[in-house]
Design goal:
Structural class: alpha/beta
Largest sheet: 8 strands, mixed
Shape: globular
Strand order of the largest sheet: 1-2-5-8-13-16-19-20
CATH class of the largest domain: Mainly Beta
Number of helices: 5
Strand content: 25-35%
Number of strands: 20
Number of domains: 2
Length: 217
């Protein structure tokens, strides 16, 4: 399907989805005009600040998510966003809480957060997770469901929720998950190294060997 047909199809599918239910639509055009033919976005994902949102190719965004590009949001190649995920680049709750009724009238409310957010290549965001403004998630990361993520997240980290609204913590390394599978499929080594890097391929393969030390984050 050509970029033009994608462009014409998307509005129609979104209108029809009101009657047929959620649909995932192939093809995404960024504000700079770049077209990502293999990116899929649900008709029932809320997008705020589209001009500041950049999706690279092979991204999947499922149903009932919120993507906030108002202050810059980059979602890199191959990222999977499941369902009911919020990825934010601004936050007003603190400003509203401390300013009360004055918040609406003040052009520069105290405590208002505006920060660009990034999700690294081939990361996975589990359902009901919240990515806070300014979070910088590395590549190959797994964010487990119901996690609250803020700040910098290292490449290949597995994040798990602590509960009670506390930020998620690193509980594992995705290279340890990938190692055994890569050991069984050597034909995939070049593909993995292409996005992860040769050093990380070696770490994953080492982690996949029985009795070998696990890869470090």
């Amino acid at each position: 399907m050509t970029p033009l047909s994608h462009f014409l199809k998307q509005p129609l599918v979104r209108v029809l989805s009101v009657f047929t239910g959620p649909r995932t639509v192939y093809g995404w055009r960024n504000a700079d005009g770049s077209f990502q033919p293999n990116t899929r976005v649900s008709t029932h994902t809320c997008i705020e600040g589209r001009d500041g949102l950049v999706l690279q190719d092979h991204v999947f965004v499922g149903h009932f998510n919120r993507l906030d590009g108002s202050n810059g949001l980059l979602i890199e190649e191959g990222v999977q966003v499941t369902n009911y995920v919020s990825i934010l680049s601004h936050s007003s709750h603190r400003a509203v809480r401390v300013m009360g009724r004055r918040y609406i009238a003040d052009p520069k409310p105290a405590g208002y957060v505006r920060r660009a957010t990034r999700v690294g290549a081939y990361s996975f965001l589990g359902p009901h997770s919240v990515i806070a403004p300014g979070a910088q998630i590395g590549k190959g990361v797994i964010v487990q469901g119901y996690s609250f993520v803020s700040g910098a997240v290292p490449d290949f980290a597995i994040l798990g929720p602590q509960g009670h609204g506390r930020p998620a913590v690193v509980i594992g390394d995705t290279r340890e998950l990938d190692g055994p599978l890569l050991q069984r499929h050597p034909e995939l080594h070049a593909l993995y190294a292409q996005w992860a890097g040769k050093d990380h391929l070696r770490r994953a393969l080492q982690a996949g060997e029985p009795g070998q030390p696990k890869a470090s984050a």
